[in-house]
Amino acid sequence: MWLRAWNFLDRWLFGPLSLSPRPVGWLLRLLRYPYAVLRDLSQGQLNLRAMGLVYATFLSIVPLLAFSFAILKGFGAHRDLEPIIYEFFRPVGAAATQITERIMQFADNVSTGLVGSVGFALLLWTLLGTIKKVEDSFNYVWHVEQPRSFARRITEYVTLLIVGPLLLVGFLGLAHRAMGSESWQAIAQMPLLSRLVGFATGLEPYVMVTAIFMLVYMFVPNTRVRWKPALIGGIAGGVLWAAVGTIFTAFVVYSSRLTIVYAGLAIIIATLLWTYFGWLILLIGAQVSFYVQNPEYLRIGLRELRLSSVEVERVSLKVMYLVGRSHADGAATWTVTSLSSELGLPGIAIAQLVATLEQAGLLLATDDERLLPGRDIGHIRLQDILDAARNQKNGHAPARDLSLPPVDRLTRALDEAWRNCCQERTLGELVEEASS
Question: 226-251 b/e with 16+ CB inside 10 Å = b?
């Protein structure tokens, strides 16, 4: 039943009517985004990753605060973290104050007792492992198969851990100073403007959440995320955070059964549930930003993309031809993103083929993700490209080499036909042929 419903929506939202320039076509194209997110949620992968991040959160929240304490103590601003922690747990209800005080106490004890010795390295290692789990989840959403290298991970994660708390506390300090200024107080005395000030003050936590989400979407995935998709994802996440937080607070306040059944564990259960919802909202916003930047994935979603054997061979030849031609002409080099746009294929398909061609020594990826021929294009045979494409690894165990003479003779004949067709032609000859 559910499968038929999803198939019906898929045909309706991606059918011929959705391509119409009329308002109904525009509306159908807009509805693709909530449809795609709800479809991905129904498949359960985002939910599982959110559950895993709940465990990572409780494993690392005290070390994270202790590390931030150690950084901010030098500026006398370590207590400014308390309202941020409280804002995160505020939907839990009256227990938010108690949870915040207990976490701050633990973090203060750890920062004064362990940081500065072997414990500092242990805390740092725990935090790096947690951020790695977060990056893996975002890479999954963004269809990124290659994580950061170990050196980049250490450098960028440590920079994030040091600069992040400073920027966050600095932003809050500037906001409070601006609100305490004489000009702001004069504005607040005006009746109409005072209402606007009160409204803006009420929106401040959600604006902060949206800004944090936007920065996370831009810098955590191991790919280039443009600021507009990150902003749209951050706004979607911020709106969901406000809506779900309000509903969850009302549930905690009015649900007496939770306290009756779980007694003293009710606070823990509520905290676990809200942490799960928080990570799920963060991943949903990341999914929205991914679809805004890559609308060609709206129909594919999180499903594994599989090209046919014919498509793999043709796209491999096209990729090598485009890279070889730009190299011979001295034109701008290609990237996975530009190839994806040129060939009209999702980036994950191009990235997999590029990785295969790179392993075969036919392509070379620079540090800035530019693609170059692996060697002189006059020495790259077309048969080498086809061999790399046809022998692409699929991750499965190789089949048993069963000898069947009729089949073996046919496959040898087909291979010979391929080689006779290509002969000793090279990529350089193919490029020269197109130029002439």
Answer: eeebbbbbbbbbbebbbebbeebbee
* pLDDT tens column, 31-46: 889 888 988 888 888 8
Q: Classify the C-alpha dihedral 161-167-171-174 as positive or negative.
A: positive
Distances (CA, A) of 214 to 74, 157, 331: 28, 17, 34
**What is the model's pTM?**
0.71
Q: Spell out the alpha helix ranges (H) of 220-254.
A: 227-254
CA 304 to chain centre: 16
Q: What is the 3-state secondary structure (H, E, C) of 101-147?
A: HHHHHHHHHHHHHCCCCHHHHHHHHHHHHHHHHHHHHHHHHCCCCCC
Identity of the residue numbered 280: L
**73 CB burial (10 A radius; 0-12, 13-18, 19+):** middle
User: Which region, left, alpha or beta, applies to residue 263 given φ > 0 means left and ψ of -120 to 50 means alpha?
Assistant: left
Of 405 and 277, the structure prediction assigns the larger pLDDT to 277
For residue 365, the surrounding DSSP H or E stretch is strand 363-365
Q: Which amino acid is at 422?
A: C
Q: Residues 53-68: pLDDT tens digits?
A: 888 887 777 677 667 7
> What is the set of domains in the chain, with CATH numbers?
2-41 (no CATH), 44-297 (no CATH), 309-392+405-435 (1.10.10.10)
CB atoms within 10 A of CB 276: 16
CA distance 104 to 113: 14
Distance CA 251, CA 253 (A): 6
Q: What is the distance between the alpha carbons of residues 51 and 360, in angstroms, rounded to a whole number? A: 39
Residue 266 CA to residue 260 CA, distance in Å, equals 8
Please report, in angstroms and rounded to a whole number, the separation of the first and last CA atoms in the chain: 58
